Amino acid sequence: MNLPWREDKIQVISGLDSATSAIYEPILARLQRVEDRLLTLRNDSLPDLDLLIKHILNSGGKRVRPAVTLLASSVHEEQSDTSVTMAAAIELLHIATLIHDDTVDDAETRRGVATVSQKWGSNIAVLFGDYVFATSATWVCETENVRVIRRFSETIMELASGQISEFFSSFDAFKARSDYEDRIYRKTASLFCTAGETGAILGSAPEQSIQSLRSYGYSIGMAFQIMDDVLDFEGNSDHIGKPVGSDLCNGVLTLPSITFLEKYPDNNPVRKWFSDARDPEQLKLAIDMIMNSDAIADCYCVIQKHCASAQASLRELPKGPSTESLNLLTEYIMSRTK
Amino acid sequence: MNLPWREDKIQVISGLDSATSAIYEPILARLQRVEDRLLTLRNDSLPDLDLLIKHILNSGGKRVRPAVTLLASSVHEEQSDTSVTMAAAIELLHIATLIHDDTVDDAETRRGVATVSQKWGSNIAVLFGDYVFATSATWVCETENVRVIRRFSETIMELASGQISEFFSSFDAFKARSDYEDRIYRKTASLFCTAGETGAILGSAPEQSIQSLRSYGYSIGMAFQIMDDVLDFEGNSDHIGKPVGSDLCNGVLTLPSITFLEKYPDNNPVRKWFSDARDPEQLKLAIDMIMNSDAIADCYCVIQKHCASAQASLRELPKGPSTESLNLLTEYIMSRTK
Question: Does the beta carbon of B208 lie under 8 angstroms from any beta carbon of chain A?
Answer without folding.
Answer: no
